[in-house]
Amino acid sequence: MAKVLITGGAGFIGSNLAHALVDNNEITIVDDLSMGKKKNIEDIDVKFYEHDVCDHEFMHQLLSKNKFDYIYYLAAVSSVADSVVRPLETHQVNQESVLDTLEYIRVNKLPIKRFLFTSSAAVYGNLPDFPKKETSHVQPLTPYAIDKYASERFTIDYGHLYDLPTVAVRFFNVYGPRQNPDSPYSGVLSIITKCMKNNKPFILYGDGSQTRDFVYVGDVVNALIKISTETKESTVYNIADGGETPLIDVIHTYEDISGIKLNINYKENRNGDITKSKADITKLKGIGFEPSWPLRSGLKKYWDYYSKL
Ligand code: UD2
């Protein structure tokens, strides 16, 4: 039984990771429930602390008392828009808390097996190189992207400079069960799912031709586990499906699966929206990972879950 800490473990991706690991590991979750939900983890046996990761004293005590083997750092203010409105506060969460944890581990020589930080495709910005490779230029355009990129570099460089077993990942558009649909900046598929179920109009920004690399959360969890347990290098991996689908095609596939016609209200493009996104996942495939949920099966699984709630 390994001892595992998941910060942000009551959130969308963190809670899915906790469900996947709980049978064979002892799991501790720290989450302030700002976006996460207690009900995401109430059916599994985990130690849960409703706490802010910016409380350094609390985190230090937790780390020194528990001697975790694996730390998955998913706690974040994940809204880009929020980071534009509150750059300093979101910086405390998205960067300072990560650095403080790394530093505490280093100074106290805590015997971790792996520290994994979760970054975002947002670091690539709007540059034309396509699809995005881990070696592509970055262009962090918002406080969120700046903090994610800096924390990613701290994570990787703590590996190189101090020999800590660290690794980072960049998520593309993750979707699936337990994604919180309650903010206008929630993942588009969580919003569509909610609109379909409640027969509410969906606002489509633009004409639907914008593309994204949608990846099912089950694949994301498998990739996180594989990267943290089967690789050694302090480096960064894209986590994505490697496909590229126009939003309108996703909607049509989803309508087909659910048997429900989405009521679409077209609006102007959202400010700063990118038109195309797709990851190169050669590096991830190089460690033996293959996505197992093509869009149609992932959407089906998501709908099966959500329509029964
Ligand atoms: C993702 C991240 C964002 C940032 C960005 C970097 C999510 C939820 N967001 O934004 O944090 O990292 O990548 O590039 O992962 N849309 C609608 N109607 C809605 C909501 C969205 O039409 O109600 C559109 C939106 O304008 C966009 C597409 O759907 O064209 C996807 O939106 P998103 O917010 O799910 O993801 P994205 O890639 O824009």
Present the secondary structure layout:
Elements: E1 2-7, H1 12-21, E2 25-31, E3 47-50, H2 56-66, E4 70-73, H3 80-85, H4 87-107, E5 114-120, H5 143-162, E6 166-171, E7 173-175, H6 188-198, E8 202-205, E9 211-212, E10 214-216, H7 217-230, E11 236-239, E12 245-246, H8 247-258, E13 264-267, H9 282-285, H10 295-307
Parallel strand pairs: 1-2, 1-4, 2-3, 4-5, 5-6, 6-11, 7-10, 8-13
Antiparallel strand pairs: 9-12
Bound molecules: uridine-diphosphate-N-acetylgalactosamine (UD2).
Task: Provide a descriptive summary of the structure in words.
The mean pLDDT is 97. By secondary structure, the protein is of the alpha/beta class. It folds into two domains: 2-173 and 215-239, 3-Layer(aba) Sandwich (Rossmann fold); 177-212 and 243-279 and 293-303, Alpha-Beta Complex (UDP-galactose 4-epimerase, domain 1). Helix content is 39%, strand content 18%. The protein is globular and about 55 Å long. The chain binds uridine-diphosphate-N-acetylgalactosamine (UD2). Uridine-diphosphate-N-acetylgalactosamine is lined by residues 80, 120-122, 173, 185-188, 191, 203-205, 210, 212, 247, 270, 273-274, 277.
